[in-house]
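hey so u asked for the seq, here:
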Amino acid sequence: MARTKDPAVRSLLLDRAAQMLRTRQPVTLRTLVAGTGVSTMAVYTYFGGMDGLWKALRQEGFTRLAAQLASVKMSADPVRDLAALGAAYLTNALESPDLYRVMFDAGFDLEDTNAADETLHRLVHAIERAKASGRFREKIDPPELATQSWTIGHGLASLVATGPLPQQALAHGVPMLTALFTSAGDEPDRCRQSVERGWGRMPPAAPGFHDRGGRP
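ran it, structure tokens below
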């Protein structure tokens, strides 16, 4: 009878591989399982080998991001929701900085090539709602504005979660998103209030983030 797979073992191997990549340690079958109490056979059991591990590692990052975005409950204020999605994006990066770094390494394939589009689709939907409600101008292109919004979030995530800036720098997201959404047609004061409400869902200190000069 086949042994039941333990999700905790799979998660352990993925987290360890991401951490080893971040610290530039060589990742092999033996180094990956060293000190974990797991045998090298587990890599084949859960991933079919090292190639499968790399695919699963990048996929896991997007899977966790999708879950974080899905936790954002939509409200009657689409601009608030856009900011809340951005805050969720940043929270995910802070909670899993190693996986976040790997997510955007195009040297690894994805198990599901549509996974990377999920973030953009959620932003596009919220922007379409903002247009329908009159907050944004009718001529605004949702995918283009979504890409600009994602660029702000990704830039902050890269500089804070995996880069040199302290977590306090995340506060810059409010004026940057306010400026972006105001340029799309929203009224400045109302926009600022909406963005502040949405951005406020970000925890003061996300779990897993150790502020040592901004580096996890």
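The two ends are 42 Å apart (CA to CA). Residues 205-216 have pLDDT under 50 and may be disordered.
lmk if thats what u needed
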